[in-house]
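Justification of computing resources. Each target in the renewal requires a structure prediction run like the one illustrated here; the chain below, 155 residues long, is used simply to show the kind of job we budget for.
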Amino acid sequence: MKKQLRGFTLVELLVAVGIIGVLASVSVVSIGSVRQKGRDAKRISEIREIQKALEGYFSTRNSYPATGEGITYSLGGVGGNYIVFCDTDAGFQADTANCRTTFMARVPADPMNTGATIYRYASVDGSSYNVTFSLETRTGDFNAGAHTATPGGIQ
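Resulting structure tokens:
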């Protein structure tokens, strides 16, 4: 009698490898989407922290830090003008020298660690402000793209 060899055929192995390849590519795509949503959730959280710091400044000075017509502060990151929110006799500044009150010890930087500045602050006369930022994908109630935070909330 002949012994029957048991094992997988070449076709069966190729099908199994193909299925594993498809599953791996689908999981890589979905992980990328989860990472984007995570970074965006962090951005929204950081914007809310910045808003709280600005409201603290407003309650102390009865105005928001004024940037003047057409001037925008870059917040956080390697290229950011402002690393902290600090109140001094001279007003709002970027470091802790002569600081009376620190409203935010570390202004958040880009979650992707690119060194890019992603939060831009502007206030013409100190009566209001806007902080512009962008999201990579739809996160919660916010669509992907540019958004603005103001004293009234995030749009």
